[in-house]
Each structure stands twice: as structure tokens, then as C-alpha cells.
Write a structure and sequence with these properties.
This protein is α+β, with helices and mostly antiparallel strands and 166 residues long. It has one domain: glutathione-dependent formaldehyde- activating enzyme (gfa) (Alpha-Beta Complex). 13% of the residues lie in helices and 30% in strands. The protein has an eight-stranded mixed beta sheet. The longest helix is centred in the C-terminal third of the chain and has 10 residues. The chain is globular, with a radius of gyration of 16 Å. The termini are far apart. The C terminus is likely disordered. Bound molecules: zinc ion (2 copies). One zinc ion binds next to loops.
Length: 166
């Protein structure tokens, strides 16, 4: 297994059979609050290569600050650790909080976003592509290339599309 991890109390454990598609650092206020830290360090993986081994997290659903799309932050109800994140409308992408990995040292961030709300007391990584807000490149394009390579689309299915179509 390529990636393994879980929450602080280990009630939630997961594994992922592939390397991450995207590795990023998000400095937005939502990630600061939800992680209790200066930023969120996140790996994006293919949802069908990822699985929870016993319990699943509970989810706190919010609307994304700029996209206004639903976004779910998964956490352990016993110890409170943030573990995963996902967009319900993008069912083929799962996101992992790097701090939950058994080996977080393998994180190699490629992109930093929302530096406009980043803290001056936190130094920046010299190797990342940096954006004051939303990333122009380095996230969506990587996801699209990965899924195109697998012969499937990077699926975006608005949750209310069924009700609109009928
Ligand atoms: Zn826990
Ligand atoms: Zn964020």
C-alpha cells in the first residue's frame, strides 16, 4: 500500500493504493480554522484507490468560499482529528490531511494557494507554485491529465442536476 494513515485515536484508518495526484498547501481561513493550524497540507488521490478500513469520518459540510460548492471536511467524532476532505460533486477525488498520514515526511508540496490570507510568521516553501487566491495551474489541470490518462473524465456532477433535469 502506498499511503496509510488515520486519526489520533486510530478509530479511523485508511489506505491508498496510489501516489497522490496533487499535493498542495492551502492558506485559506477555512483551512486554518478547520485544521487548527496555519494552513492545511493536502494530498489529492483517486477516490477509487482509497478506502477506509473500519469507521468512516463524520462530515462537516460547508460551502466553498469562492466556488460556493459544497465541500465536506471529514473528522473523527471521538478524537476530533481532521482526516479527509472532499467535494460531494466530485466523487472520483478524495483528499487527505497530510498530518494524518503514518509517514507525513513523504509530502512534497507542488502548489500553495490563498497566500493572501497566509500568516507573515510562517515561511513559504521555496519549491511551490504560489497563488494569492485560487490556483490557475497545478490542481485542476493535474487532475484532468490524471483521469484522461486512465480513460475517464475528471467528473464534476452538480448535486442538484437531477432535480433540475426533471
Ligand atoms: Zn479518532
Ligand atoms: Zn483552504
Amino acid at each position: 500500500m502506498v499511503l496509510k494513515g488515520g486519526c489520533a485515536c486510530q478509530r479511523i484508518r485508511y489506505e491508498c493504493a496510489e501516489d497522490p495526484i496533487v499535493q498542495l498547501i492551502c492558506h485559506c481561513r477555512d483551512c486554518q480554522r478547520a485544521s487548527g493550524s496555519a494552513f492545511a497540507a493536502i494530498m489529492m488521490v483517486a477516490a477509487d484507490k482509497f478506502r477506509f478500513l473500519n469507521d468512516e469520518p463524520s462530515y462537516h459540510e460547508v460551502l466553498g468560499g469562492t466556488t460556493h460548492r459544497p465541500f465536506r471536511r471529514g473528522f473523527c467524532t471521538k478524537c476530533g482529528s481532521p482526516v479527509t476532505l472532499h467535494w460531494p460533486e466530485v466523487s472520483n477525488v478524495q483528499m487527505i490531511h497530510v498530518g494524518s498520514l503514518d509517514d507525513p515526511s513523504r509530502f512534497e508540496p507542488q502548489t500553495e494557494l490563498w497566500l493572501s490570507s497566509g500568516f507573515h510568521w510562517h515561511s513559504k516553501n521555496p519549491n511551490t507554485l504560489k497563488f494569492d487566491g485560487k490556483p490557475i495551474t497545478g490542481v485542476r489541470d493535474r487532475l484532468e491529465a490524471y483521469f484522461a490518462n486512465r480513460g475517464s473524465a475528471f467528473l464534476f456532477v452538480p448535486r442538484n442536476s437531477d432535480s433540475k433535469a426533471q
